[in-house]
Amino acid sequence: MTTTIRINGQVTTVQAEPDTPLLWLVRGELGLTGTKFGCGMALCGACTVHLDGEPVRSCVTPLAAVGPRAVTTIEGLRSRVADAVRDAWLKLDVVQCGYCQSGQVMAAAALLARNPRPTDADIDAAMAGNLCRCGTYPRIRAAIHAAAAALAPGPQAGANSPVRGP
User: Fold this and answer.
1) What are phi and psi of 52, to 5 degrees?
2) How far is CA 15 from the centre of its chain?
3) Whether the Cβ atoms of residue 72 and residue 62 lie closer than 8 Å to each other
4) Under 8 Å CB-to-CB from 114, ≥6 apart: which residues?
5) What phi, psi does 70 have (nearest 5°)?
6) Phi/psi at 66 (nearest 5 deg)?
């Protein structure tokens, strides 16, 4: 069956059944391998992509559920918020093995796009279900706070950021 999908700002037509998981299309057909296969049951977050800006687990999202909405993968994540998140990830050395990090970045960018000043509780809620086998959770939280501080308006954006953790 022919399916048209809008992904990372491009419209493409592929041969796929409506019940095909979005992840298989993203990785297998389109070669966008930044989105990872983790558990296949929407429990780990490694496969997180944005669907019209909202994080979804692509391993359980069938193509039929995508329709005309915009899909963004880690390769297509472009915005001031995404840049701040990536910068904070690098500055705070968040990544250890790195396998889960594309999903973590996608979830963090979606959080900051809708809530530019998250509390620890907000971060915990938004990042729940994004598992990190290496246990970098304190650095992830600190990086989200640092990205929020960098995005804050004013001449001292980023100064005195509420960074916590190692």
Assistant:
1) 50, 40
2) 26
3) no
4) none
5) -85, 130
6) -80, -50
Helix (H, G, I), strand (E, B) or coil at 7: strand
101, two tokens: 């990090």
Which is nearest to 3 in space by CA: 91, 68, 60? Answer: 68
Q: Which two tokens stand for residue 164?
A: 């916590």
Tokens in use for 83?
């840049």
Statement: residue 160 has pLDDT above 80: no
- Contact yes or no for 104/45 (Cβ under 8 A): yes
The Cα–Cα gap between 69 and 75 comes to: 17
What is the DSSP code (8-state) at residue 11?
E
pLDDT tens per residue, range 121-159? 999 999 999 999 999 999 999 999 999 999 998 765 444
Q: What is the pLDDT of residues 25-68, one digit of tens each?
A: 999 999 999 999 999 999 999 999 999 999 999 999 999 999 99
Reading the block at residue 62, the tokens are 């069938």
4, 11 Cβ separation under 8 angstroms:
yes
Q: Looking at this protein, which amino acid is placed at residue 100?
A: C
Amino acid at 117: R
pTM of the model: 0.90
CA separation (Å) from 45 to 11, 81, 100, 107, 157? 25, 20, 7, 8, 30
